[in-house]
Design brief:
With 79 residues, this protein is an alpha+beta fold. It has a domain at 43-79. The chain contains two helices and two strands; from the N terminus they run αββα. It has helices at 11-34, 63-78, and strands spanning 41-46, 52-57. Strands 1-2 form a two-stranded antiparallel sheet.
Length: 79
């Protein structure tokens, strides 16, 4: 079995981890702040002319923070 080598984080690594955490928190907080201002139908797909041709409910706005949270956890675990 190979020994595990724990590489300490440099200052740059710590700054990038902090920035990623701040962006994640922003990504989670913003939908809650603006949820009441959203229309009931949100365009979710656009055609080649840039016109919306697919719509979703206002709850779809929470999918992006969920995906971001899963990606953050995965990348943090891999690090």
């Amino acid at each position: 079995m190979r020994p595990r080598v724990k590489v300490p984080l440099t200052l740059t690594d710590k700054i990038l981890e902090g920035a990623a955490f701040f962006v994640l928190l922003t990504l989670i907080v913003l939908p809650f702040l603006y949820f009441q201002d959203l229309p009931e139908r949100i365009p979710s797909h656009y055609n080649h002319l840039g016109e919306p041709d697919g719509f979703s409910g206002e709850g779809i706005i929470f999918s992006l923070p969920a995906i971001g949270f899963i990606l953050y956890l995965g990348m943090t675990w891999l690090n």
